[in-house]
Amino acid sequence: MKCILVALFLVSALTSCQDVVPGAGPLTDAILSDAGKSPEELHRNDATVYEVVDVDNRSASLISAYSKTTLSKRLGMGGRPESATVGIGDRLVVSIFEAGADGLFSTSKSKAAKISVVVQPDGKAAIPYVGEVRFAGLTLEQARRAIVEALKGKAVEPDVIVTSLDTASRNVTVTGAVNAASVVPLSLAGEKLTDVITKAGGVRGETYDTFVTVTRGNKSGTVLMSALIDNPTENIWVQSGDEITLVRDPRQFTVLGAVKSNKRQAFGSRDLSLIEALGMSRGGNDLATDAEGVFVFRYEEAEIAASLLGRSRYEAMLKKGMRPDSHGRVPLVYRLDMSRPDSLLVGQTFPVNNRDIIYVSRHLTTDISKFFGIVGQPLRVANTGAIAMHRAADLGN
């Protein structure tokens, strides 16, 4: 009978110690069991809906490749702009040459005339003896040919040169952590992202702590300035109307749970892998760490989430209540199983992002040990008291 009671006590301890023992964060099973469930399924209206993705070669490679092509591929911003065209507000000089001295634009001193025009809101500008000419949407060469054609029969063997003085219609705005925030005009040859940042005085802080956001219409993309320099494919051609914002935001990540040092860490001047980030926190506690429960909590890009989960699963999670943040990113939790022999190799290729939370779950046995420590203390006190009473009784006899 005594053995049965002991067995029942142990089973009760194993199943209930999580509820009565203080713990530093959830256990691995709790994180996995809540994943993929709606607030209704969790019986918590305020629950954040998330999904868990294993860190393996596929996920690590996909995330690493994606982070190197944020602007050039995800937003389709990488192509060289088409030939520059005249736009509203542009200032032009139209030079008209004639073969004879008695032409419309000729004088005794010159057989040419220079006419300055500004393209009006209707896209047109007036040329003497020609009338209004549509410039907006034309290249300089197309505008030249249009004027020559209009002058035929009026001027003496006319020829025309159209020169651009000011390109008010082809400007980009550069603001934020630059030395001279400004509106930068684009040349006819076009500029790349680093070109316009340089024209705005260059980056004010360290390149590895400065994020560059390009907004084009209803699309936007963000990349580190250092990545922009290191990866030429991200140095995209800018287009008229682009808004470029630089923000200095020192990159940081936080490590919590069963590790030797719970704290926020700075990236410094280099990118970090998950293994390197764990190493900076002096690794896990051998006696407390659950090797199968190393997690990265992150709001991930929607395109990455859809690729990792599959389109059908991703859509199902959205219907369950997985909500994007203000930047369109969705909550994902990555799990690295350190009990697998290849985990150290995979972890070296999995990149840590700014503001990631790395959580190392404790092992269940840690809670069991705490439980026995808690329930054992009063038992030890009672046992000590009982021994003292027996001794006192023996002395009295």
Task: Describe the model.
The protein is 34% helix and 25% strand. By secondary structure, the chain is α+β, with helices and mostly antiparallel strands. It has 3 domains: 14-67 and 252-367, Outer membrane lipoprotein wza fold like (Roll); 78-82 and 170-248, Outer membrane lipoprotein wza domain like (Outer membrane lipoprotein wza fold like), CATH 3.10.560.10; 91-166, 2-Layer Sandwich (wza like fold). The strands form 4 sheets. The protein has a 6-stranded mixed beta sheet, with helices on both faces. Strands 8-7-11-9-10 form a 5-stranded mixed beta sheet. Helix 1 packs across helix 13 (364-396) and helix 10 packs across helix 11 (311-320).
Instruction: Please state the oligomeric state of the protein chains shown.
Output: single chain
Shape: elongated
CATH superfamily of the largest domain: Outer membrane lipoprotein wza domain like
Helix content: 25-40%
Structural class by secondary-structure content: alpha+beta
User: Order of strands across the widest beta sheet?
Assistant: 1-15-14-16-12-13
How many separate helices? 13
Rg, Å, rounded? 35 Å
**Beta-strand residue fraction:** 15-25%
CATH architecture of the largest domain: Roll
Largest sheet: 6 strands, mixed
- Average pLDDT for all residues: 83
The total domain count is 3
Number of strands: 16
CATH topology of the largest domain: Outer membrane lipoprotein wza fold like
For this structure, what is the CATH class of the largest domain? Answer: Alpha Beta
Catalogue the unreliable spans: 2-23, 365-377
